[in-house]
């Protein structure tokens, strides 16, 4: 390939690298972004990343979502190539042809030298050769342009495939898997790693492939033209892989440390800014300043370390470009003097070796970005190895009977069970309220009822089928959990509702809104078409909750678990929404995790959960009459009891527990 920019221009980007300012170059990513997406080892993520020493076969998991092993990443890469093999082959072919055209120009220049030296052919021959050089340059330009176009087309398509696959896999993940790994991990992969893979596929991979092809073509041509001179040049070029190897061995740890130091710096700064008033009120300025100084010192040291690495790599590479040229000139001159090679051949070899620095520079510059892209790809592909839903296509649930059979459950890592021998049977169409002190396990029971978590022992069945074994579609038709967290999508009211019932018409949507008392929608200028979200119509907490409840009405499941679903509504609205819901859900089973005791009052039966056990179960009137924990809770709620809090945990009233 002709080095059209000349040595000065070509060197410019690397000079910037040395100052750590060139995007995508070693050391610069972290400088520009404290949490670099797709950097080799983003500091804010704590899972192990597959590196050269990583798990080569499978996926490493730790406590977060898995990270794909080297083999899995390679398989996925091959899959992307296979999916677009025509474009990929075209890209390789065109770039190989461009590289070949680039080799012709130095060869022709060599012939010009020979023509001048031998005097054969005269000026006309030199003119012809010069015209051929121009033709080669134009040919190379056109081929390179088309080759790059195809390379970027391949990158864009592959990136779209990765994105689509990630979305599909993320949506198929069992809720418990996401919760256990932390939604932040999934979000970081979706917003950081997927774009990083996209950028790598669009820019880095094509660039490296093209540059590698060019370098190989130049080396092969040099060896073919003059094997002795080619071999000599190759020997002196070995300094480059040696320097790169030395650098790469140290770079991962050094950049990891730099990223961590940068994260610590940003974190300390953010914490100090966020807690400025507390810092001022408690006179903590000096301690915060010392903390800032400590993290800043560590950041500077980490920067110095990476700078040191770059300060070795780049001079070593620069020297390795010059040495082969000098060696070939010296040896070539001696050989030419003895007539072993022509002067033109020596000139061609030297031009080839000079030309080699362009693709090698490109590969070196992209090395770090490629490594970061691969690490991101491993995290994105890791989703394929995430524990899938254990759902089976077995039992088909029918009806709204809910049964909890001697269930024990504890969160991973906790030393004691949250639920301990819970037994409960809720008849189809019955409304059961679950009450109890904070931390008793009410929400946990709700999670088990809707299949988010699986009991450690015992079984939860809905409609006769174990919920943990239901496929997500069946599960959604059968049981729905409504919590205090209500997501309102940045879309119209209609679209927000259609999520629950894609086929519903406006009449049904309005009826569902009416059922939950969301009359504010009718008052909106665009009604169901009103766009919701920041900068548009912004719903408040109560309205978001009403939309969520309307979705439940539309989803029409056999069983509904309400986990403090109406807690954010003011008492009057909440009561209205619950009454409306009760009317709409007549004939369905409702398990309401209640913090307001009127919910319990309205329920058919009340279960009191204390310390992970059901200690009372019966109708509101019966439990009040029994004078036990529920009666005390009820009295306290009405302000007539002598105890302001709920019943003491762990008290079991024999004969009342279900
Ligand atoms: N994801 C989790 N991981 C670990 N422990 C958890 C998790 N969720 C809840 N716990 C613990 O399990 C116990 C029961 O929590 P749970 O939320 O089920 O109680 P609750 O009765 O609903 O309480 P509240 O009324 O305050 O919401 C608590 O000790 C809580 O700290």
UniProtKB/TrEMBL annotation:
Domain ABC transporter intervals: 402-636
Chain segments carrying region Disordered: 1-62
Lineage: Bacteria, Bacillati, Actinomycetota, Actinomycetes, Kitasatosporales
Any one GO molecular-function label of the UniProt entry: ATP binding
Keyword Kinase (UniProt): no
Database matches in SUPFAM superfamilies: ABC transporter transmembrane region, P-loop containing nucleoside triphosphate hydrolases
Organism, as annotated: Streptomyces tremellae
UniProt entry keywords in alphabetical sequence: ATP-binding, Membrane, Nucleotide-binding, Transmembrane, Transmembrane helix
Membrane association type: Multi-pass membrane protein
Domain ABC transmembrane type-1: 89-372
Residue spans crossing the bilayer: 86-109, 307-329
Entry protein name: ABC transporter ATP-binding protein
Locations listed in the record: Cell membrane
Compositional bias per record (Basic and acidic residues), positions renumbered to this chain: 1-21
């Amino acid at each position: 390939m002709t080095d059209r920019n000349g040595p000065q221009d070509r060197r410019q980007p690397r000079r910037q690298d040395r100052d750590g300012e060139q995007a995508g170059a070693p050391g610069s990513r972290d400088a520009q972004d404290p949490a670099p997406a797709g950097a080799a080892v983003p500091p804010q993520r704590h899972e192990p990343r597959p590196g050269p020493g990583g798990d080569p076969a499978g996926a490493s998991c730790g406590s977060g979502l898995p990270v794909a092993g080297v083999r899995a990443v390679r398989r996925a890469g091959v899959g992307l190539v296979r999916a677009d093999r025509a474009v990929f082959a075209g890209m390789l072919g065109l770039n190989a042809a461009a590289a070949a055209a680039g080799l012709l120009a130095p060869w022709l220049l060599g012939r010009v030298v020979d023509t001048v030296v031998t005097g054969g052919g005269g000026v006309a021959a030199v003119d012809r050769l010069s015209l051929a050089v121009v033709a080669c340059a134009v040919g190379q330009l056109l081929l390179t342009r088309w080759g790059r176009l195809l390379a970027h087309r391949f990158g864009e398509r592959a990136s779209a495939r990765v994105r689509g696959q990630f979305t599909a896999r993320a949506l198929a993940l069992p809720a418990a898997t996401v919760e256990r790994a932390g939604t932040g991990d999934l979000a970081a992969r979706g917003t950081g790693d997927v774009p990083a893979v996209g950028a790598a596929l669009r820019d880095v991979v094509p660039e490296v492939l093209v540059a590698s092809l060019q370098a190989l073509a130049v080396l092969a041509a040099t060896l073919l033209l003059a094997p002795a001179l080619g071999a000599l040049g190759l020997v002196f070029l070995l300094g480059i892989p040696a320097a790169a190897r030395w650098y790469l061995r140290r770079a991962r740890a050094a950049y990891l440390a730099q990223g961590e130091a940068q994260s610590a710096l940003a974190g300390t700064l953010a914490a100090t800014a966020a807690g400025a008033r507390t810092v001022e009120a408690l006179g903590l300025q000096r301690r915060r300043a010392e903390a800032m100084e400590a993290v800043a010192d560590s950041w500077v040291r980490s920067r110095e370390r990476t700078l040191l690495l770059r300060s070795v790599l780049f001079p070593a590479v620069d020297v390795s470009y010059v040495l082969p040229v000098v060696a070939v000139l010296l040896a070539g001159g001696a050989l030419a003097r003895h007539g072993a090679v022509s002067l033109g051949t020596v000139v061609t070899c030297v031009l080839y070796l000079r030309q080699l620095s362009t693709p090698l520079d490109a590969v070196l510059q992209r090395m770090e970005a490629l490594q970061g892209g691969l690490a991101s790809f491993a995290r994105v592909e890791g989703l394929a190895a995430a524990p899938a839903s254990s759902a089976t296509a077995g039992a088909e649930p029918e009806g709204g009977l809910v049964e909890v059979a001697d269930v024990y459950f504890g969160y991973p890592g906790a030393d004691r069970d949250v639920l301990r021998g819970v037994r409960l049977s809720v008849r189809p169409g019955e409304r059961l309220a679950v009450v109890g002190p904070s931390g008793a396990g009410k929400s946990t029971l709700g999670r088990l009822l809707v299949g988010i978590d699986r009991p450690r022992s015992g079984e939860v069945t809905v409609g006769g089928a174990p919920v943990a074994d239901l496929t997500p579609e069946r599960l959604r038709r059968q049981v729905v959990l409504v919590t205090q967290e209500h997501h309102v999508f940045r879309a119209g009211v209609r679209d927000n509702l259609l999520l629950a019932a894609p086929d519903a018409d406006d009449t049904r949507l309005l009826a569902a809104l009416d059922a939950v008392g969301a009359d504010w929608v009718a008052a909106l200028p665009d009604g169901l078409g009103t766009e919701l979200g920041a900068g548009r119509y912004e719903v408040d907490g109560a309205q978001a909750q009403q939309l969520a409840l309307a979705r439940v009405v539309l989803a029409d499941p056999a069983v509904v678990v309400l986990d403090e679903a109406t807690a954010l509504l003011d008492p009057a609205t909440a009561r209205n929404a619950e009454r409306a819901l009760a009317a709409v859900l007549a004939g369905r089973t409702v398990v309401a995790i209640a913090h307001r005791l009127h919910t319990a009052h309205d329920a058919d039966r009340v279960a009191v959960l204390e310390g992970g056990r059901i200690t009372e179960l019966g109708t509101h009137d019966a439990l009040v009459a029994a004078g036990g924990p529920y009666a005390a809770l009820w009295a306290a709620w009405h302000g007539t009891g002598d105890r302001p809090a709920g019943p003491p945990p762990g008290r079991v009233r024999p004969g009342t527990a279900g």
